[in-house]
Every structure is written in C-alpha cells, then in structure tokens.
Amino acid sequence: MAEDSALFDEFLLQPRVAYFSMEIALASEIPTYAGGLGVLAGDTMRSAVDLELPMVAVSLVSRAGYFKQTLDAAGRQIEEPDPWEPATVASPLNAKIAVEIEGRRVWVSGWLYVLQGQSCGAQPVILLDTDLAENSEQDRRITDCLYGGDTAYRLKQEVVLGIGGVLMLQALGFTIQQYHMNEGHSATLALQLLRQFAYRKADVRPGEPRYDIGRTREMLCFTTHTPIEASHDQFDYALVRRILGELVDLGTLKRLAGEQTMNMTALALSLSKYVNGVARRHAEESERRYPGYHVHSITNGVHPFTWTSKPFRRLYDEHLPGWCHEPDLLARTPYAIDDDAIGRAHAAAKAELLGRVTRASGAIWDPETLVIGFSRRMTSYKRPDLLFGDLDRLRAIAAKHPLQIVFAGKAHPQDAQGKR
Questions:
Q1: What pLDDT was estimated at residue 181?
Q2: Residues with Cβ < 8 Å from 68, sequence gap 6 or more?
Q3: Under 8 Å CB-to-CB from 276, ≥6 apart: which residues?
Q4: What region does 383 belong to: left with phi over 0, alpha with psi -120 to 50, or beta?
C-alpha cells in the first residue's frame, strides 16, 4: 500500500488531536468494534475527514475481533471467533515501542489504516498490535480480543492502548496538541503524561507535588458515556501495582483515581481540562454522579453518508447536492423532493431490509406492513425488553395496526443477563 506511505508523510506535517478509543467502527467487515462507543468513534473520525480537521485515532487491532454470533435452537447466544487479517486493509508501521507490564517489556507495533472520505480527504488510524516475535505467547495475545478475558487482561489492554498509544505517536513523529479520551479505557495515557511531565526530584520540595498536573490537564479532554457503575472500569490497586508497577506514586494515583480502586472514569475526570457527556440530560446526570466537575453536553450525531441507505443517497444526490457535507440541507427535503420520490426511495430501502431478513431467517414479510427495528448491544440497561413489557397491549396494537419487528443485538460473552 504505497499510497498509504505517501499519505503518512503528509499526516506528520501539522499538529493533530489524538483520539483514543478502545473500539472503533471503521468498516462493517473490520471487527474492531462492539457497539455504540465504537460507532461513535468511527463517525467522529469520518466527520473529521469531511471537515478536514487534523486528527489521528488510536485503537487496538483486535485480531480476533469481538465475536461472531449464532443462536442455537433454544435461542441462546453462541460466540464464535471472528478473526481478521489487518494486512488486507492496513499498512505495517515502521516503529516499535515497549511498555512495562508485570515488570517485563512488552513490545508494541502498529498498523496504519487510512480512513478515506467519500470524495476526498483522509485521516490516519493507528491500530496497536502486540502479536510480535519479541513477546511471549501470553503477551502476543493482549491485543487479540476486544473486551475479552479477565480483569487483568483488560488492564493490560488499557496499558497498551493508553501508555503504548502515547509512546507510539511520539515514536512515529506526530505532534499532538490535544489528547481526547473516548470513555475511560485509555485513561492510562494520562498517567504516561504525568510521568513525562514529572519534575526532577531535586526540584521538588517536601510536601509539593511531583507531577505537573496543570500541564497534563491542558493536554486532555474526555468524553464520558453510560452513567451506570457497571460501565466504568475499576481495578484493584494490588492488581494495578502488579501490572503497572510504579508508573506514578500510589498516593498521587489514589488522589486522582479513587482511594479504594483505580476508577478509570475518575482518573480521566481528574486530569482533563474539558469533559463532555453525550446529551444534555446525560451531562446533568454525570454532574450529579461526579460532583465538582462541569460536564458539557454534546449531543451524539451520526455521519450522514454512512448511515443513509443507498436509495436515499441517490435521491439526495439528485435533489440536495452537498447534503453529506452540509446535513442542514436535509431540512429542505419536504420542499425540494416530491413525496412520491421519497416514497419510492423508502420502499426500495425497506425491500433491501426485508430481503436481508428473508436471507437470515427464511421469513417472508409483507412490504406494505409497518416495520419496527431495534438493533443495539444487548444489555439490560439499554432496556431491550421494553417493547415486550406489556404483551397484551402489543397484541391489541397489532390487531388494529399490523406490524413486523426486526430485533437484533449481541450480548457481551460474560453478560448473562444480556444473554437472557
């Protein structure tokens, strides 16, 4: 991929915002994402392409993917491997760095995926990889499974993502003007910056901080997501000391991340100059949960071109040229496009959906009947059972207004309630 090498030199010419995310949805055939967090990360980078904002994304290569879902005869979820080969879509980077895990060096390389716009523009995505001959078999697997393994495996992944990501960007020659953490998984990058911005021991007086916390905060911003306890990673300090060693002194770490456990959300909040939630109501709830922090609200959006069906893309291209770069143009749809044309595009998109349903399940559906769709990560706090909370009422509605339901989603392999 010689063209990637030429683009890479251009990527280094200007300072960039480094966007860290444990998962990122680059393409449906690249299984480096599990749900909405990764979709948001991918859409953020695609929007950066369209707007020509200088960014670089950092994530894990997740060679084994998330998992491929099948259902048995009783409807139970079965997880199967979903491996992919990064060499088919990405270029190996000519850099290696090492992070310390459990007192040993773990080497990390990277892959360059160039995220292209639909017309022009591109943004770099760095996918970190520990599958190297220099590493033990155990360490080679750290970047294999997205959200896989036990708590120790997760913390090792977060060390590679946060600390390894900072070191990799520096080794590659990027000039980073801001680090953006998409959720707390990458908050170890804040610890790496603390270590880099530490004062010399000879310059620190008794009782004074060893680290330039103010300088670190200036470099960091943080997006927090689901405001429930289960969605925020927390690690026992005994495990932290075993895996991280003395990256920063324990007293400082506890003041920043919590006395009882290393809470990655608390760590990110403590060391970020700017914090935002993903909706106004969510920002209010986050401020209630984390008093003392001002959480800005930025309502999640989508990348219009990616999430618009092909029939509607063609329709908008004809009547609203430039719509994918200026989504405000879509407000003109009722005035610029005939109702019949919209109806035909809708029917074509619906036919594609129903065709996919038939191929997947064998069910033959009526194209004239209303379709309700639910497609999310399958976990209890997203309330997937809400639609079926009152079956008698649902039947009564369907008797007057026939409907068809497309219901889809994956539960995390260790989420028994989500699987139920």
A1: 98
A2: 79, 80, 81, 82
A3: 221, 222, 223, 224, 283, 295, 296, 297, 298
A4: left
Q: Which residue has the tokens 């690249």?
A: 30
CA distance 12 to 26: 21
Q: Which residue has 């496009």 as its token pair?
A: 337
Short-list 227, 206, 217, CA closest to 381: 227
pTM of the shown model? 0.92
295 contact partners, CB below 8 Å, separation of at least 6: 224, 275, 276, 277, 283, 284, 286, 287
At position 11, the amino acid (one-letter code) is F
Question: What does the alpha-carbon distance between residue 337 and residue 132 come to, in Å, rounded to a whole number?
Answer: 55
β-pairing, 261-263 vs 234-236, is: antiparallel
Angle formed by the axes of helices 237-244 and 151-159, to 10°?
A: 50
Output the DSSP codes for 3-49. HHHHHHHHHTTS-EEEEE-S---S-TTS----SHHHHHHHHHHHHHH
Q: How far is CA 356 from the centre of its chain?
A: 26
Q: In the numeric block, which tokens belong to residue 96?
A: 């290696």
Classified as helix, coil or strand, 284 is: helix
Name residue, tokens 């984390």: 290
Is the distance from CB of 194 to CB of 211 less than 8 angstroms? yes
Neighbours of 265 (CB within 10 A): 27
Residue range 182-241, pLDDT digits in tens: 999 999 999 999 999 988 876 777 767 788 999 999 999 999 987 777 668 999 999 999
Place of tokens 């639609």: 387
Distance CA(35)–CA(384), nearest Å, equals: 14
DSSP 171-239: HHT--EEEEEEESGGGTHHHHHHHHHTBPPGGGPPTTS-SB-HHHHHHTEEEE----SGGGS-EEEHHH
Handedness of CA 100, 105, 106, 112 (dihedral sign): positive
The Cα 20–Cα 263 span in angstroms is: 18
Q: Which residues contact 327 (CB under 8 A, 6 or more apart)?
A: 304
300-339: burial string, b at 16+ Cβ within 10 Å, e else: eeebbbeebeebbbebbeebbeebbeebebeeeeeeebee
Taking the C-alpha atoms of residue 201 and residue 352, their distance in angstroms, rounded to an integer, is 65
**What pLDDT score does 30 carry?**
95
DSSP lists the bridge partners of residue 104 as 101
